[in-house]
Design goal:
2 domains; 7-stranded antiparallel beta sheet; alpha+beta; FAD/NAD(P)-binding domain; 5-stranded parallel beta sheet; single chain; Helicase, Ruva Protein, domain 3; 406 residues
Length: 406
């Protein structure tokens, strides 16, 4: 029986602690917050997108753009079906929504957190709320806490998360511990994060959510990401599911190097859209230009579209030239917003970067540098798209780390 210390009471830490305890180890979990799973409570807008019902291993890995292959063993050992079975067996009924996103039927993240809390009790994991300030290793691990006490362990699992949402306890302490023990931490940056723009149009349309539109993110003329779905304009720029996913494809964001291109009418070709405009114009020849737009786009967008096209808003539609019509079509099919920078890391859903995966055994999550030191969850240099994939990484790596300790 090994003495195991797990640092971090999020999904990765809880799964690691319970799995290690089920292997007959004596496990203590340290969590600085008074309650475990605080970050889980705010995921999925408080509904907790607990995993993704993606049961094909290769497809699952393809949704992890950063070091996805590293997770082959973790996903093979403990995949989405295992996570879903785990919660269903503990009385949390689940449902699958658009994009195979999995939520509790209740739409309450607290049901997920409660299930994990009682699992800790069931596995007899001892939970302490002390803040760890330092770690040493010689023949065993010495873990120092804020009140001066020292705890000793045969194995340590670091599952402290990244630096996103620091109010939930993700303050980057795990990186400091790992560096002291000889590990390399890759560049840390926000991922799955809103993006700022200097365009005044974003602020003019703040609060406007666009659905069923397609987007392209371009660097110069090269498309680095494209998607179809939902996005949101804010006072600082753009956000929403597609924008968050797009952010994970942007490396080294430089001001105005990237641009967002929105197709507001993706179901229509240029020719089809032109035919529709002609029908609308012919059916309402004496309408002013700004009035005819209400049938095409949301009202908040009308002043912006007018400014972008340069067409007089009071011009009768029967006087609009073919060139003006083509300009309107161009704007509707390629509504362009220059992108400035990511929002701060404390607004990111996850952190990109972390412990270098070359220094971790992918079959056990054990350090290749320090024996009996393990890593799980967001602290590792892996990050995925939105849709439950990042929580799946937490559960998979936590389970693999915990099951590797005897």
């Amino acid at each position: 029986m090994s003495r195991v210390i797990v640092i971090g009471g999020g999904p990765a830490g809880i799964m690691a602690a319970c799995t290690a305890a089920n292997n007959g180890n004596s496990v203590t979990l340290f969590e600085t917050n008074p309650k475990i799973g605080r970050k889980l409570m705010i995921t999925g807008k408080g509904r907790c997108n607990v995993t993704n019902a993606c049961f094909d291993l290769q497809e699952l890995i393809s949704n992890v753009p950063v070091n996805g292959r590293f997770l082959y063993s973790a996903f093979s050992t403990y995949g989405p079906s295992d996570v879903m079975d785990f919660f269903e067996e503990r009385g949390v009924k689940l449902k699958v929504e658009r994009g195979n996103r999995v939520f509790p039927v209740s739409d309450k993240a607290v049901d997920i957190v409660d299930a994990l809390f009682f699992y800790l009790k069931e596995c007899r994991v001892f939970v302490r709320n002390d803040k760890i300030v330092d770690i040493d290793f010689s023949d065993e691990f010495s873990v120092y806490v804020e009140n001066g006490k020292v705890f000793h362990a045969d194995a340590v699992i670091i599952a402290t998360g990244g630096m996103s949402y620091p109010t939930t306890g993700s303050t980057g302490d795990g990186y400091r511990f790992a560096k002291k023990l000889g590990h390399t931490v890759t560049d840390i940056s926000p991922s799955l994060v809103p993006i700022e723009s200097e365009s005044p149009f974003c602020k003019a349309m703040q609060g406007l959510s666009l659905r069923n539109v397609s987007i392209k993110i371009k660097k110069s003329e090269k498309v680095v990401y494209d998607d179809f779905g939902e996005m949101l304009f804010t006072h600082f720029g753009v956000s929403g599911p597609m924008i968050l996913s797009a952010s994970s494809h942007i490396r080294k964001m430089e001001p105005n190097e990237y641009s967002l291109h929105i197709d507001l009418k993706p179901a229509l070709s240029v020719e089809q859209l032109d035919a529709r405009l002609l029908r609308d114009f012919e059916g309402n020849p004496n309408k002013d230009f700004h009035n005819i737009l209400s049938g095409l786009i949301p009202s908040k967008m009308i002043p912006v579209i007018i400014e972008m096209t340069g067409i007089n808003p009071e011009k009768k539609v029967n006087q609009i030239t073919k060139a003006e019509r083509m300009t309107l079509i161009s704007v509707l099919k390629d509504f362009t917003i220059p992108l400035l920078q990511f929002r701060p890391i404390n607004e990111a859903i996850i952190t990109s970067g972390g412990i270098n995966v070359k220094e971790i055994n992918p079959k056990t999550m054990e350090s290749k540098i320090v024996p009996n030191l393990y890593f799980a969850g967001e602290i590792i240099d892996v990050d995925a798209y939105t849709g439950g994939f990042n929580l799946q990484i937490a559960f998979s790596t936590g389970y693999l780390a915990g099951s590797s300790i005897y």
